[in-house]
Amino acid sequence: MTADAATPGDDAPEAARPARRRLWWPAALAAAVALALGVPALVTSGTSASGSSSIAVPADDSPEAGFARDMATHHQQAVDLSFIVRDRTGDEPTRTLAFDIINTQANQRGMMMGWLDQWGLSQNSPAKPMAWMKMGHDYQAHDGSLMPGMATNAQLAKLRSLSGRDAEVFYLQLMIEHHKGGVEMAQGYVDLAKNDSEKRLAQSMVVAQTSELELMTDMLKERGAAPGVPDS
User: Fold this and answer.
1) Spatial contact of 186 and 209, defined as CB atoms under 8 Å apart
2) What is the mean pLDDT of the chain?
């Protein structure tokens, strides 16, 4: 961890200590998942490292390809939001949360983009986002918000205009909605998955982001705020 995103030390205020204890593991989980899922498990020609037959290459319109593309896009915005707040506050619990989200989601995004490359599939598709879920999603993309939970361009601009506690609160409110959308998508893929390795990654997202939802709700309460993105 860099000095900018250092975890509060033992001499940190008491309020910062629970956040430190609860924030270390998402990034560690991502690293463990990356090792456990290795690309060879998803490469589909020949046999897997264990010697068993591998699955067929996912089709371009498959849940495997759709989830990898859409979640990679979703993750990229979480990384962008976290970089913004990192530079807008000196609050260590918020910066540590942002650091963990940057590390975890950038790592996972790279894995998903790598899988698409290994499958010989493009990283973009003309299909409507989340169409692969086959749930009749009627979400209307608007102002840069392509999927449920994603912030709009106006909200990103607002976050950049804030600092200190105001930036922390707005970031947490945006990220709670972002995680809710991410958990829904990851669980949607778990329910449809035919690729065990990608399914395990999606399951890890559900677990980690559900835990972070609880943490961020507590952090908002500590700042006298509540979930829910203001209209303006």
Assistant:
1) yes
2) 83
